[in-house]
Amino acid sequence: MKLLEYQAKEVFRSAGILTPKEIMVMSLDDAVKAAEDVVGYPCVVKAQVPVGGRGKAGGVRLAKSKEEVANITSKILGMDIKGCTVEKVLISEAVTVSKEYYLSVVLHRGSKKPMVIISPSGGVDIEEISKTHPEMIFKEEFDMILGFKDYSLRNLYKKVFSGQGEKVSFSVFKSFLEKLIDIYFKKDATLVEINPLIIHNGQCMALDAKILLDDNGLVFHPEFSKYVNDNSDETEQEKMAREASLTYISLEGDIACMVNGAGLAMATMDTITHFGGSAANFLDIGGSSNPEKVVNALKIIASNKKVKSILINIFGGITRCDDIANGFKEGIEKVKIDLPISCRIVGTNDQEAKRIMNSIGINVSVNMDEAIQNAVKLSKDGK
Ligand code: GDP
Ligand code: MN
């Protein structure tokens, strides 16, 4: 889950990281009130959406008076930034910026370790800089036993801050970075990023904040549950699945998959691609034979408007095939489905499953390739 800037900054502030004075608001009146009563002028009006590049999209603007705050806020509220409608803005104290730095703690998948990344060329062009001037980006890995080593910290400080004329002491930088690292581990984050980081009166200050949380760690952090609903880059189907405790991931294709077991679900998606189709989702209905799960799964996959055909791929070990088939029958009765279905069911009680599926007009194949090729064909026939 991605925290919005104002939420990430709340985490920062409670960890003792300096941020500008600011208030999140959801209406024009509140924006003006925040600027007049608390933040003062000049201030920055910032769109709160879970996508990057807001600055370039016109979602971060400076306001010097009450009139400008009103004018700018009315333009930003309701604005569309990369498919997200702006419903919240942050009214933030404008701080003098002489130089923008980039700083992050991130899980680096290549080395399978957390890593600290820092650059003296931060700001809205950091992605470009990382391509054109990779020598301006400095990285230090964590040691998984010793943690982030002191000499790594000194290395980064030396490369970025010494001799630059920017007045920040090593001890200030060290304590700042340690707070960031602390957030990364304590909150089960996969990314804690500040861009831009600025030096303000000898202190490090976060002008922007981005935190990505590991969804599997959310169960340990009830403090974030209040954000779950409003931060969604989650699709409607992913939300339904989360509420029904199903593992579902939306994909771009048009073949809805209902599979038991994560491994089989992955193999199913690969095979769909192999035969020239594309999966609309990953869905693991799990090892249980709970018919309610099957009904929920069916509701979820059928609610995706992009879907052209449905593929059911069940290997019944502990899962009983007839239970799945019964759940499916119940689901078909409850959820109106106009889509063609291709089905493969093999394993415990598969004969009974076949009989049940046939009774609702669905053919069952025992061959996975055959069922998948059929699903691909069905997805193309309707086009
Ligand atoms: P992003 O484009 O979504 O990353 O949004 P940011 O919060 O990083 O803002 C984009 C840019 O706006 C920053 O890189 C700064 O150059 C500028 N900016 C944001 N807040 C301030 C501020 O308080 N003072 C000044 N001078 N510039 C700011
Ligand atoms: Mn930024």
TL;DR?
With 383 residues, the chain is an alpha+beta fold. The chain contains 12 helices and 18 strands. Guanosine-5'-diphosphate is lined by residues 20, 44, 46, 52-55, 60, 94-95, 97, 100, 123-124, 195-196, 207-208.
The SSE order reads EHEHEEHEEEEEHEHHEEEHEEHEHEHEHH
Structural class: alpha+beta
Rounded mean pLDDT is 93
CATH topology of the largest domain: Rossmann fold
User: Separation of termini?
Assistant: 35 Å
For this structure, the quaternary state is single chain
CATH superfamily of the largest domain: Succinyl-CoA synthetase domains
User: What ranges have pLDDT less than 50 throughout 5 or more consecutive residues?
Assistant: none
Determine Rg (CA atoms, Å).
Answer: 26 Å
Note the total helix count: 12
Total domains: 3
Helix content: 25-40%
How many strands, which pairing sense, and closed or not: the largest β-sheet?
7 strands, antiparallel
CATH architecture of the largest domain: 3-Layer(aba) Sandwich
